[in-house]
């Protein structure tokens, strides 16, 4: 695995990171923002600003997912966008969505299934997109 790290295409990792981050910005604001807020039991104030951590953590997480996906692509010998998409789907559903659903089911989450569906589906789409971008490089 360490050898796989040395063979990463860092431009591809950067592109996948940026794509995942931008997708998240779209997913959790104009596309599904209202539904996501309702699932959490909150409402956004028009014109309110979120603290920097609201942007920094998702960006760092997108970078970590992109690096891990790149390592898996190199280590497993995945080639082409089709195999990359399949790997992204396995990672997205098998890890990200599964963990999201598990974490959503807790006593303080007002609408756990809605939260898990919105957040989990973002993670699946993001993992597939990142894998395809990295695999295309």
TrEMBL record:
<dbReference type="Pfam" id="PF08570">
    <property type="entry name" value="DUF1761"/>
</dbReference>
<feature type="transmembrane region" description="Helical">
    <location>
        <begin position="113"/>
        <end position="136"/>
    </location>
</feature>
<feature type="transmembrane region" description="Helical">
    <location>
        <begin position="12"/>
        <end position="32"/>
    </location>
</feature>
<keyword id="KW-0472">Membrane</keyword>
<feature type="transmembrane region" description="Helical">
    <location>
        <begin position="84"/>
        <end position="101"/>
    </location>
</feature>
<protein>
    <recommendedName>
        <fullName>DUF1761 domain-containing protein</fullName>
    </recommendedName>
</protein>
<keyword id="KW-1133">Transmembrane helix</keyword>
<feature type="transmembrane region" description="Helical">
    <location>
        <begin position="53"/>
        <end position="78"/>
    </location>
</feature>
<keyword id="KW-0812">Transmembrane</keyword>
<dbReference type="InterPro" id="IPR013879">
    <property type="entry name" value="DUF1761"/>
</dbReference>
């Amino acid at each position: 695995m360490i050898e796989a790290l040395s063979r990463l295409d860092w431009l591809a990792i950067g592109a996948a990171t940026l794509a995942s981050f931008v997708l998240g910005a779209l997913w959790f604001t104009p596309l599904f923002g209202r539904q996501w807020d309702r699932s959490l039991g909150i409402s956004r104030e028009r014109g309110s600003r979120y603290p920097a951590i609201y942007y920094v953590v998702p960006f760092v997480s997108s970078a970590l997912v992109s690096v891990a996906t790149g390592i898996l692509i190199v280590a497993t010998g995945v080639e082409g966008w089709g195999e990359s998409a399949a790997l992204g789907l396995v990672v997205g559903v098998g890890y990200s969505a599964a963990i999201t659903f598990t974490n959503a089911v807790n006593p303080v989450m007002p609408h756990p299934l809605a939260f898990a569906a919105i957040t989990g589906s973002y993670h699946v789409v993001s993992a597939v997109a990142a894998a395809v971008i990295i695999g295309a490089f």
